[in-house]
Prior knowledge:
Oligomer: single chain
Bound molecules: FE2/S2 (inorganic) cluster
Number of domains: 1
Shape: globular
CATH superfamily: BFD-like [2Fe-2S]-binding domain
Number of strands: 2
Structural class: mainly alpha
CATH class: Mainly Alpha
Order of helices and strands: EEHHH
Amino acid sequence: MYVCMCKGVTDHQIRREVDSGARSFRDVREATGCATQCGKCACMAKTITREAVQKA
Ligand code: FES
């Protein structure tokens, strides 16, 4: 599912970034561009990142 419409970032992509070493939402944002435009996706993207980091 798309989390960030502006940058076309999916939840899958966020999890993949965490799998490849991202450890914070800042890392995910820098790698994908997620939440760098309107910012509406930031809350959900942070939640997905947090969950993925906890499982990693
Ligand atoms: Fe992610 Fe707009 S939906 S920056």
